[in-house]
Amino acid sequence: MIAQLQKDLVEYAKSIGVDKIGFTHASPFQELKNRLKRQQELNYQSGFEESDIDLRTEPNRLLDGAESIIAIALAYPSKMEEAPTGKKGARRGIFARASWGIDYHVAVRERLQLIEEWLKERVPTVQLKSMVDTGELVDRAVAERAGIGWSGKNCSIITHEFGSYVYLGEMITNIPFAPDTPIENECGECRLCLDVCPTGALVDAGQLNSKKCVAFLTQTKDFLPDEFRAKIGNRIYGCDTCQTVCPKNKGKINWIHDEFKPDPELAKPLLQPLLNLSNKEFKAKFGAMSGSWRGKKPIQRNAIIALAHFKEEAAVPDLIAIMKKDERPVMRGTAAWAIGKIGGPLAEEALLAAREREMDSEVVAEIEKGLTLLNV
């Protein structure tokens, strides 16, 4: 009976747009527990994840009577059609591919909800707990054990069919489904992802110092540490470098789900218009994307850093206005640094005037950095 239910579930999952489905037992992830403890000892955690390692590695703590875990994957695109090109006076930023289209949390949860309803119709006594990304379990560990793909050196799940461009979700259940066999790791001797990581956040195969990862840094809300500013480039949310260089992703375009196909003007937005968006305008324009979850502040800060990266002189008047009037010290200070980085005829006078009136010590420090950069 359970074998037929499992077979029927696989077919149903495909019918609702699940690209891969796998099953694993609900026993503890002991090896993962050891790795997570080591991550904590090294202070490599981002702070966004669940802090209780036992909850992250013991499914029975999350669902009494847990017997198995269902893992699902949805593929997302690696390329966009008609991608706009930035140019002098109209520079553009870039959202990482995982933020193209609608928020993947919504899309994956919808599939999990449909699977929950399907199972409840057939097994009224079923117990279930689903999660996507922000849940307690580690999505990649579940997917790896369920045979969705292998865990690459870039800390992504890599599938044969879609490369590492997949969103993951899982469901703990008290139904003892037969476990699938994990896929053999095929990274071999390749270490491209480790060699090209912009900040050296991939410290070893499968080991990430989250605090140095550009994807994490673009989501922070404070001043970005100096040593990382040049590494951000024009990224305003996330980073794809360790995926784009992966040989296993070659040719994996994945134009499968219309909901994940990007609006080019949102995925590669003009930078200057971002600087003055109100909260309401930001939510109206970007709110459906997963990259909006931290609000507009990190995006606007990153846009300033990107304009400095391009040395976009046309942006200096906007940056001076931010330095003068913005209520947020991070924005004032980052704008001051960017003005110094860009330079131009307006820069020095504006920075000197700002230094006279600024009361926030951190912002003053950024103004001094800007003035120093003018002379570099």
UniProtKB/TrEMBL annotation:
Example of a GO biological process term: tRNA queuosine(34) biosynthetic process
Any one GO MF annotation of this record: 4 iron, 4 sulfur cluster binding
Residue intervals of the 4Fe-4S ferredoxin-type domain: 177-207
Alphabetical UniProt keywords: 4Fe-4S, Cytoplasm, Iron, Iron-sulfur, Metal-binding, Oxidoreductase, Queuosine biosynthesis, tRNA processing
Stored InterPro entries: 4Fe4S_Fe-S-bd (IPR017896), 4Fe4S_Fe_S_CS (IPR017900), ARM-like (IPR011989), ARM-type_fold (IPR016024), PBS_lyase_HEAT (IPR004155), QueG (IPR004453), QueG_DUF1730 (IPR013542)
Lineage: Bacteria, Bacillati, Bacillota, Bacilli, Bacillales
Keyword Transcription regulation part of the UniProt annotation: no
SUPFAM superfamilies: 4Fe-4S ferredoxins, ARM repeat
Protein name (database record): Epoxyqueuosine reductase
